[in-house]
Amino acid sequence: xEITRFNEAQRYDAPxxxxxRSLRLQGFDASSSKFAWxxxxxxxxxxxxxxxxxxxxxxxxxxxxxxxIELDTGEKHTLSRLDSCYxxxxxxxxxxxxxxxxxxxxVVMPYPDSQA
Length: 116
Description:
It is built from no helices and nine strands. The protein is an all-beta fold and 116 residues long. The chain has one domain: Sandwich (Jelly Rolls), CATH 2.60.120.10. The chain is globular and about 40 Å long. 16% of the residues are buried.
C-alpha cells in the first residue's frame, strides 16, 4: 500500500487551466498506480479551464462548491457538492467556477499512452 498524506501532496500545473491549483494524490510521482492517476483541483472564484478535449476519459467529482461544465456541443451543466460526471475521450469541455467560494474537484484519469 502507498499512502499520500494530504499535507505532503505535490502541486502540478494543468495545461489551459486558470486561477486553479492542483495537487497530485495518486499516480505519476505520487504512487505506483498503473491504471489511473488522481488529482485534487481547487478553483478560485472565476477560475476554470479553457474549452479543450483530450483522447482520455475523465471522471470529475465535486467535493465543495459548484463547477459549471460546458460541452463542445453547447450543452451546459452545473455540478454541486458530491455530484460527478464522466467525460468520454474526445469530448470537449470548458470548466468554470461561477461562484464566490473556492470549488474543489477530484479528477480521475488514465495515463496518456506515453506514460502507461
